[in-house]
Amino acid sequence: MERVCLVHYHEIGLKGKNRSTFENRLLANINHALKGSGEFRARRISGHLLVEPQDGFASSAMAEAISRIPGVARVSLAYRCEQDESAYCEAAIRALGEVNDTWDSFKVHARRSSTNYEKHTLEMNQIVGSALCAAFPQKKVIMHGPDITVVVHAVQGDVYVYADTGPGVGGLPVGTAGKVVSLFSSGFDSPVATWMLGRRGAICIPVHFSGRPMTSDTSEWLCMDIVEALAPSGVVGRMYVIPFGEKQREISLAVPQSLRIIMYRRVMFAVAERIASIEGAKALVTGESLGQVASQTLENISVVNEMVSMPVLRPLIGSDKQEIMKRAEELGTYAISSQDAPDCCTLFMPRRPETHARLEEVHKAWDLFDHGGIIEDLVNNLEYVDFDQCPSYKPPRTLRARHKELLPAYSV
Ligand code: ATP
Ligand code: MG
Asked: Which tens digit of pLDDT belongs to each residue from 164-218?
């Protein structure tokens, strides 16, 4: 009896043409994410995707890898057998016997789709139910709220039987919702914010401003480690790195100390928007959370926001730090983000940053340095790192011709 992974997704909003685009994208993303985990085949069957390892034994590690892919609502480790009652009863006994948690009650849920199997689901429920009662005499059958549900699903000539099923991350397959540019630091928030947009189907392009050459490049390496940690979800296409140290010094010498951070952030937003237009991205993303630090008051958010005309998405704006940290732990970015590294934000920090900036003063300070020239220079000195984790990412044509002079910052 073979064991396979049955992948479930939510069908809400997936009508007509959308649906096959969605399924094909998810299939391609699964194929990519499982590269290197042995020979397998992935295909569609009636409302589910099926992943069949060549050795006929899908492991829980494989199910766990699939559960992290956006668009996956649930993954079940299922036995596949013929449409024969003794075969699926045996599969059900095996499946229930393998449940690790302690349990006292169960029920059977039989289904049929795209099949001409003659038995009715009520009859299948009874047959499998009696076999399980005989095999587990000390356990109870409960129709409402049992500990375990054994699913027996007849589809296209086969029967899939499972008791072991776990939640996936949900969302939509990466590549079905366009592209976003994400302002990315090595802190806790922006990686989580990036992942959240990726989970909604967007291809994410992180942009990191480092303090280089005035600081070391540690923050850049931490950002790369974070992107690697996000690899199982396949949300990141390419990361841009912008050495910002020298320009920050120039700005810090020209403007009132308390407005430095706002000036840096206005430049960062402008550069990020330029990268977004090179990449064909339709929005920016930040990890801002209202009131968390000085730069995240409503006044400061708005004087920075006015720099750009694209929507700026802030998925964490209403989240508490605790919630964000919990998600960072689940994603595996927590330990990396806990490491301290100077980046452009710690460089030339004012002693008392402005928390309620007034637009008039911001505009005055903005004109104290050659902001246009600085933005241009930064855009002309982009560096980038490619990650082979998002199969739907296509690098921008306009940069392709310049790849040689751009020089990847690192080879990954
Ligand atoms: P994070 O945990 O994401 O670093 P934070 O709590 O440290 O956020 P800020 O430093 O005010 O808060 O940054 C707010 C947002 O600005 C970040 O979530 C991120 O989107 C962006 N940002 C901060 N630093 C950088 C950087 N060095 N490069 C690119 N974007 C940055
Ligand atoms: Mg930060």
From this structure: 899 999 999 999 999 999 999 999 999 999 999 999 999 999 999 999 999 988 9
User: Which domains does the chain possess?
Assistant: 2-167 (3.30.2130.30), 179-402 (3.40.50.620)
First-to-last CA distance in the chain? 41
Report the nearest atom of ligand 1 relative to the CA of 242.
Answer: 28
Gap from CA of 293 to ligand 1 centroid (Å): 10
Atom number of ligand 1 nearest to Cα 207 = 29
Whose Cα sits closest to atom 25 in ligand 1? 185
How deeply is 25 buried, as exposed, middle or buried, from its count of CB atoms within 10 A (0-12, 13-18, 19+)?
buried
Is there an atom of ligand 1 within 6 Å of 183 CB? yes
Q: Is the CB of 343 under 6 A from ligand 1?
A: yes
Nearest atom within ligand 1 for CA of residue 316: 18
Residue type, 126: Q
